[in-house]
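Appendix B, record 7
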Amino acid sequence: MRRFLSFFCLLPLFAGGCAYVKDTSNQNITVLTPGAEDAQCYVYVEGLRYSFNPPETVNIFKSKENLEIDCLAPGNRRKKISVPATIAKASAGNVATGVLPGATWDYLSGAMFRYPDVIEVDFTGMPVSPESMPAQNNPDIVQPEDYTLEQFTPTRPRLNGDREAPPPELLRRGHGGGSAAMTFDGSGYAVESLEPVEGKGDLMDVVKDLGPEINPAGPAAAGTMGPTLPESEPVPLYPGQ
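Structure tokens (predicted):
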């Protein structure tokens, strides 16, 4: 009888934590984004962040803090909402019956609180706004196209400032007042090409114009290449014959 009374006295202490036994410290929540497809949502609670790709269900830790939800949708749309936590029915019964140990355990474990099972972040009617220009295209600074930087092309680099330069006159080969003509190499760059010279030169004419000290065929070079033989005699195969 005494054991039965002891168990009966301790029964409220075990029953006090029924919220933790029933709901535990975790909960599955589903985030929906009506009016927006391919959205990305982040749920923040007590330093934790959960990522959702609606419609998606994720298991989170429950807390007394509110759920802070931040959703990003295509079309440069963004919406933030805050979802408060409510007290679970089992924990409310513990508080009503005065079972302080069980209520304290439910509070510390997070089982006392609960969030909605389905949370909607409504984008219906939110207009689509264009993306802002990058910082380098702000109107109060010099535009990238106005900097005198090199612009690399398939053949060679050039300055941006040269794009306004007038193109040179194209001259056919063999025409024009100078000895050189301007042509294009296919990339918008002028290339100087020399005009051809009429007639063919003779290499021996260059040798004759050399001085006797550097002309191997001149008089000063006689005998340096061996004895001179008459043209009528045969040329020996080996030197000294």
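Remarks on this record: The chain has five helices and 13 strands. The longest strand covers residues 26-32.
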